[in-house]
User: Fold this.
Amino acid sequence: MLNHPEKIWHNGKFIAWDDATLHVMAHVVHYGSSVFEGIRCYALPSGPAIFRAQDHMQRLLDSAKIYRIDVDLTRDELVNAMVELVAVNKTWPCYIRPIVLRGYGQLGVNPFSSPTEIYIANYSWGKYLGSDAEQGVDVCVSSWNRMAPNTLPAMAKAGANYMNSQLIKMEAIMNGYVEGIALDVSGYVSEGSGENLFVVRNGVIYTAPLGNSVLAGITRDSVIKLARDVGIEVVEQMIPREMLYIADEVFFSGTAAEITPIRSIDKISVNKGVTGPITKKMIKEFYGIINGTAPDRFNWFTKVPVKNAQPVSV
Ligand SMILES: Cc1ncc(COP(=O)(O)O)c(C=O)c1O
Assistant:
């Protein structure tokens, strides 16, 4: 059970955490019809602030649009709801989980007669890939591929996609790895079960383009912007599997994983297991912003107005 705060936002109202329940016959339970986001609110020295709030809520609306789920709220209304929730729950730093789902209506596959339910929850949360993930994680290439194009759309952050992610993650864990890297249906590098992937070789950062079945990660975008801003070349191109084994550096990015160095892939060490200089530079740049020690020069933060802004986790 989660150590949770008091309230959850549901369709415009705050409700008690324990009242945020769903009927077992809701469409989403049977057919995976949900789209969601994962967002972090950081404890900056100036108080709580949500990282790239607008971009996450825009991706939520985009995911809903791909699946023809009507959301009668604007991006900014969703952002405001999330800001209010963090303030009401007085819980930060925290992870924020907005979800749009097809609720309890008809039980056929046709989703159009099921009502849309929107929830936003938040809770305190630590490191995703383990507390010693900064030292680098040991990963494998998964035997599972990412979804093929024109099957489940990878650009939509949909609940159903995470059945594929679960296969990747379970296989990795059962074999003693922290995470799996999935290839796309053509055998090119795609992404982790819940992270985008970056490969460094000869001073250039490479990452798979959106066409290789990757989620358009907000952290991926932040890494690309930061790297270019500090003069590191970033190339979005198809990456053959073997490039993973001869890379100078490899790292994951994601809201949960933030920037996590990879120290071995399929038991082949990356840079002798030591975090390399470009990964270190990206960590310094990224963590500088999210810790509030460097200026927010891209205006990535939305402040949560609260009195007595001490970090309060539950
Ligand atoms: C499959 C997948 N890829 C990539 C990411 C990273 O995306 P973001 O940086 O927006 O969290 C996530 C996390 O949401 C994910 O689940």
